[in-house]
What does this fold into?
Amino acid sequence: MNKYVSKVLEDLKTKNPNQPEFIQAATEILESISLVCDEHPEYEEKGLLEMLTEPERVIMFRVPWVDDNGKVQVNKGYRVQFNSAIGPYKGGLRFHPSVNLSILKFLGFEQIFKNSLTTLPIGGGKGGSDFDPKGKSDNEVMRFCQAFMAELYRHIGADTDVPAGDIGVGAREIGYLFGYYKKLANEHTAVLTGRGLEYGGSLARKQATGYGLVYLVNEMLTCNGKELKGKTVVVSGSGNVAIYACEKATQLGAKVVAMCDSNGYVYDANGIDLDLVKEIKEVRRGRIKEYVDVHKDAKYVPDCREIWTVKCDIALPCATQNELDEKSAEILIKNGVFAVGEGANMPTTLEATKKFIDAGVLFAPGKAANAGGVATSALEMAQSSQRIFWSFEEVDAKLKNIMVGIFHNIDNAARKYGKENNFVIGANIAAFEKIAGAMLAHGIC
Ligand code: NDP
It folds into this structure.
């Protein structure tokens, strides 16, 4: 590895001893760009990697709110404004009990690269809270969102930092967050994306991450003499990304046979009944095990990690970070998987990723494969700025174009550095070259 890269990585580990997820993400990216740094000794002189790996700003705050029993609850709130070299900070908000600074720094760091790949003018950030919306009443969720925004509003803005949804932050939460921002700031701007269609949202934003994932995977298959049609697919998760990945894969002729939530997975040899999954997850906010109440011949297994034992041609991990480990990768490879597309952020561990690449599995990393969500968020911002509204078909066509473009960009970057078909390295290099160019242009600041 390049000496400068290796020194920055060692220093990063020493300075951030309790941030394993952030170190994992930084390790993957820094190792990948080692080849580029060999050609650019000026990066070290300018302290480029030290600046890149330190967030421009981290905001941490308390979020006090009152539950339905009149009891005061206090959660932690965060916004990591990681890098604004290419444009305003952009990245989702995650509400989940596991949220901590390490996870948000990993997500924010990845987001800088993902946003660079979209070709759109957006920097990288991420935020959230350890609040768990699961099991809370609508009123509790609203009071929490208002308390969260009561602090966040002073740090964000349509040209400064534009959050969106992520795990635990869907249409309902975005609505409450936006409503309170509007009240506090007295302005109706594109300060959040993923907004409802009635108040500035974009058609196809809801579908964008899942659809985009499948568009990119499809292009990767086509360019490697394969096709999606007729293939068996496993999609983990049953949230926003998973549902629309399943929908697009099915539309393109694949058969999705398994999906999960954090409790367990369902297997349906006839192909997943997506209308039922939508009804359970989007309407009832229920659990995936309810699927087998309707489809008696489907199977429910109360362990989500076991989903990777289901035989498939293509695996689309769309739930959460590190959900697919080395052991699961070995099983998938043994069962004949030939392509993996990451819908979630960093769902595959470093060891599992290496297994796939060494085995010749076509592996599309999340920062490229799931960039369709943020790309469409940027299209939402563009529509808001121009006070126009594109049709579903227009947005979907732009999304498809962007995803196909991202694939060719990462494929070319991998080839340029002699790493053909290593899309992890290709994605990191393609994204980095643009970020580095912008940062160097701005000087030391
Ligand atoms: P949702 O909250 O809509 O869905 C998350 C899904 O993953 C749920 O089915 C959830 O199950 C499941 N899940 C959560 N934790 C675990 C776990 N530990 N093990 C197994 N399953 C789990 O989130 P999204 O679909 O929006 O996000 C999914 C992933 O995609 C995240 O990594 C997110 O960062 C990433 N992503 C999302 C984008 C978007 O536009 N939404 C854009 C780009 C990336 P349960 O209901 O039991 O919690």
Q: What stands out?
A: The chain has a mean pLDDT of 97. The chain has 18 helices and twelve strands. The two ends are 27 Å apart (CA to CA).
